[in-house]
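A student in our group prepared the protein record below, which I am reviewing. Thanks in advance; the entry in question is below.
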Amino acid sequence: MCNLYRMTKSSTEVAGLFNAAPAAASNAPGEIYPGYPGLVVVDGSIRSMVWGFPLSLKSKKTGQPLKPKPVNNARTDKLSQFFWRDSFEKRRCLIPLTEWAEAEGARGSMTRTWLSLLDAELFAVAGVWRSSDEWGDCYSMVMKDGTGAAAEVHSRMPVILRGDQCRVWEEGSAEAALQLCKQPYAGEIAIDQTATPWARRP
């Protein structure tokens, strides 16, 4: 599952590709982690939201509330469940990115492997969003079974959207959007295996 991605293009470049109004200001970093702000395209506008839906947790020892956990991936086969259903049916968005990362290697010494599209420096993946009391507006990335080269790195991958698929995801019915999730991605994916430790954060 994707727990790290890069979006290194400017809000203006995103606006040009997705025919959207650029964000007035954004504090989204180049590398986005769960619980961090990222850019999304919603209703023709670029907005900054927190990556991950908050999941309320309680301490097993004390029963007291803990800091919410960001649930940053929505599996295609879980979209009909209560946690995701309303957002999937009513609030779908585009997540612009330049590449995403997966962890590879032995536990405790995993490294980052970056995946990107050979024919596009900037592209969109499927997302859902909602408002929350904890973090304000937040979003999650929709994941499906991995295909092609991506499947050799991880069993799941983001739902990549190209061309008219972006409009269908944003504006189409839930049934049409779900069909996009089921289609295998046919394009070529570049794999960059690095020696960078997975756990490193800024």
Summary: DSSP finds five helices and 15 strands in the chain. Residues 5-55+63-197 form a domain with the hypothetical protein yedk fold fold (CATH 3.90.1680.10). The CA atoms of residues 80 and 98 lie 29 Å apart. The helical segments are 11-18, 82-90, 148-151, 164-171, 174-182.
